[in-house]
Amino acid sequence: MQKRSSAGGWWLYLLVMLVIVLVLLTMYQIDRQWTKLAEVQATLSEQARDIRELRTAITSGAIRQQAAGGETAPGVTTAFQRAYAMTQLPDYAQGDWNVNAFGNNLKTITPLVSTDAYASEVQGYIQESLIARNPDTLEWEGLIAKSWQVSDDGLTITFQLRDGVTFSDGAPLTTDDVVFTFQFIMTEAIQAPRERAYYEKIKDVKANGKNEVVFTYKEPYFEALSLAGGMPIMPKHFYGPYLQKPQEFNESKGLLLGSGPYRLPDPKGWTPDKGNVELVRNERYWGDVQPSYNRILWTIIQNDNARLTTYRNGKIDDYQARPVEYQQLKNDPQIMGKSQNFEYMPPVAGYSYIGWNQERNGKPTRFADPRVRQAMSYLTDVDRIIKDVFLGYAEAAVSPFSNTSKQHDAALQPWRFNLEKAQELLKAAGYEDRNGDGVLEGKDGQPFTFRLTYFGDNEDTKRMVLLLKDLYARAGVKMEPFPQEWPVMLEALNKKDFDAITLGWTSGIETDIYQMFHSSQAKTDGDNFISYKSPALDKLIDQARATVDEAARMPLWRQAEHIMYEDQPYTFLMRRQNLTFIDKRIHNLQMTKLGLNAGSLPVETFVPAAMQKYTQP
């Protein structure tokens, strides 16, 4: 027989439930308090160590005097001159956050293991090199190194390190860390094939006492100073244990510690599922000028429209506009009321391309035939892509070398759309429509179909790929668009598991193409992931890299460019202009010979006190 509950029974039940909730809340608060107490104890321990080191430094006279108000006294090193000039502006203030967005998920931010430009941007705030390039003169200047000498034969470079440089955990940076970084990179068990491809030119790196380190090269190399001086220094005490467990390092997601102006809150704790990358100020930063922002934050927003909405709402500080929306945004009162906008072609602008995979599963593909690659370049109407998709905010790329570079032969013109020539080349390579279905077939009867892999969340790339599908179909080539997520694309590159892929490379003042086009790099995890092999190009690359004299080197690069121009290992697409909107709260934005200084290091931008909105340190 069913029974009804009495009112008193319900009250007793509610009372018991209330007690349980209160007990759980109490336990949660206690747990939080223990966590907070552990953090406080760790901070106090670090502060005690810093105070001991400070006393020692004062006793030894190693502390440099500073002017009143925290300003660096006269004698600021060259690398910090621009940042120091910023601190003298009347509205300069420290504090606030610099918040930006990445358009792709990051697979890892561990140095060497990571391969994308986003991870490299994060690492730049944390790890530093011996020297840096001046954005006004483009000359090298000391950062961790205070001076250096190059031997007459160019094979030996000796660096003298500054005193007082420390990593963000307080450990001193010494020549042992420089030597260790080279040895760590060159350890075969460490997943760093790209870096080893360059550093293998170095015979050895040796410490000559606490503050002097000597790089000795096996042979002359035109970028010897850049290679040695630009190596990001990895702390031995932090990364050294992974020599005994390299697989753990290779599979890691966020092992990142350095001497730079910012640090990870937990140098071992970042994972992709966090959804963002957040850096905090390095309170121990050794530089002449302390960084402006309390925090640097990147959120992951893969959708273009969502990224614009986030910028419009003031949740991020900059927005890289798509050409299709740029003019509309310039006429948008709300956007222009909050923004500074910059429209420019960086002198080191990278290039986009379509890479034709020439070998798959150990067997040559149809793209191993240069006539097929040439035909595909004739069918890829770059002028129309620039006009219809990028609305003129780009220039056609001829090769890996910028049109303004000394490496480029101005006589070479971009490949233009030519359906007839493409059809002739394809026919010569054995492709005809043998069954009348509108699709070419090879001599083996297999149709000319392929997948073009691309990053699926980029709307402009999506529009370009759909345009190319129609253009290729006019010649009887069936292209299947194959959109992928960023980590999946990187995995496909490493395994060479694709037909063709469209991506981009960054560029430098002078571009070394060894990494992408030398035959020796057509290996697993190498950056010649299209397996392009040309003995003639290899020879020129080797000669150019070994030629220190610029006047003698440039003709070699131009000969190499001619080979790539004829072979078309990539179909070179374009270099795009930067169409950038940046919140007006960000001050001291300047154009330099390296482009806009928004991401320059040392940090050169700030938010005046009256405009700051993030109060958390």
UniProtKB/TrEMBL annotation:
Presence of keyword Nucleotidyltransferase: no
CDD domains membership: PBP2_AppA_like (cd08514)
Chain segments annotated as transmembrane: 12-30
Species classification: Bacteria, Pseudomonadati, Pseudomonadota, Gammaproteobacteria, Thiotrichales
Organism: Candidatus Thiothrix phosphatis
Name of protein: Peptide-binding protein
Signal peptide: none
Protein family (similarity comment): Belongs to the bacterial solute-binding protein 5 family.
Domain Solute-binding protein family, residue spans: 141-519
InterPro entries tied to this protein: Peptide/Ni-bd, SBP_5, SBP_5_dom
Keyword terms of this UniProt record: Membrane, Signal, Transmembrane, Transmembrane helix, Transport
